[in-house]
Specification:
Length: 347
């Protein structure tokens, strides 16, 4: 590289202190934008889930809500608590019957020598287990009265299944008590249905309130994100304007140096350099594909100060990297050839 000044023209670039300051500022802004993008994705996923839910409702129509409630019985409505009082009284009448004693506690499988019990009965049940689950406070208990009803039926069905002889005492006792229980349940069932209907309405109102609260929160987040993104865009625009204003006009010597140095670029770096010119100068006609340094003729006077400076700094950095890579490759080649030279000297 030959020029008339002993001072390297590349030293006329923006001070390192200012470059580091702008670099730090851009890093912080980039981190902020990345965080905003994550929040935008969260908002998009929320509204997509609402769209999917709405489409499912349109395609399937209004489905009948599931019977009962998944709330703990302790948190049930007044109507359901009244039903539970009636059910508990009904349950007490069944368990106090003189034939209820075989079903009050778990079957003593080992004591009675019932080796095949668990092969026949998949889910054992008894009234003490039902009482324990009804009083559970840790969330492991029953969620609605129909679950208790099902377990009471299970007690008697297990008994008739294992004692399949219809004339056996346990079979007769279980069948009789089940019949009495079902008659009482049928009397209670209208109140159960009414309480469940009221509870479903209450849960629907709660779900609607929760949904509206979520939509309000995400709507507020959307407005905030829009403002933050607009602010970040304005900051980038102002920064670009500031950087362009700091790009002074290249001196004739710098233009001459740039025109000479660009011919030393590798094919990949040359394409990147032409992309810089194409990006900001629509009058620049070169294609970045299949172009060589012999094809390029630059009219740097037609470039803006900003465009010329971008190209100037890119060529400087690219050539420095090329020189460093070339030096490493040269050293590696020397190391690979040294053993052969030593062998020749030893022969």
């Amino acid at each position: 590289m030959v020029h008339n000044s002993e001072e390297n023209p590349y030293n006329h670039s923006i001070s390192i202190e200012n470059l580091n300051r702008y670099k730090h500022f851009l890093y912080g802004l980039n981190s902020q934008v990345n965080q905003l993008e994550k929040q935008v994705k969260e908002v998009e996923q929320f509204y997509q889930s609402i769209d999917v839910l709405n489409n499912d409702c349109k395609n399937k129509g209004r489905e009948k809500p599931p019977t009962g409630s998944r709330k703990p019985l302790q948190c049930a409505s007044e109507e359901m608590q009244e039903v539970m009082r009636h059910f508990s009284k009904m349950l007490s009448e069944i368990t106090q019957h003189r034939w209820a004693w075989p079903f009050l506690e778990p079957v003593d499988v080992e004591g009675l020598g019932l080796d095949d019990y668990f092969e026949i009965i998949e889910k054992p049940m008894d009234f003490s287990t039902i009482k324990r689950k009804m009083n559970a406070k840790d969330g492991s208990g029953y969620k609605n009265v129909r679950e208790i009803y099902a377990d009471v039926r299970l007690i008697f069905n297990n008994a008739t299944k294992y004692n399949n002889d219809e004339k056996s005492d346990v079979h007769v006792m279980a069948k009789t008590l089940l019949h009495k229980f079902e008659k009482k349940w049928l009397l209670l069932l209208p109140k159960v249905a009414k309480a469940e209907s009221e509870l479903s309405k209450e849960e629907a109102r709660e779900n609607l309130t929760k949904k509206l609260a979520q939509e309000t929160a995400y709507a507020n987040m959307t407005r905030k994100l829009s403002a933050e993104l607009s602010k970040a865009d304005m900051t980038l625009t102002n920064l670009k304007t500031t950087m362009i204003a700091k790009c002074r006009k290249l001196s004739p010597l710098e233009k001459s140096l740039l025109a000479a140095e660009i011919t030393k670029l590798s094919p990949d770096n040359l394409r990147n350099a032409l992309e810089i010119l194409n990006e900001n100068n629509p009058n620049f006609q070169y294609s970045v594909d299949d172009v060589t340094t012999e094809d390029v003729t630059l009219d740097l006077d037609s470039q803006s100060n900003y465009n010329a400076w971008r190209l100037y700094m890119f060529v400087k950095n690219a050539l420095e990297l090329q020189d460093a890579t070339s030096a490493v490759t040269h050293d590696n080649n020397i190391e690979e050839k040294e053993p052969d030279a030593k062998k020749r000297r030893m022969v």
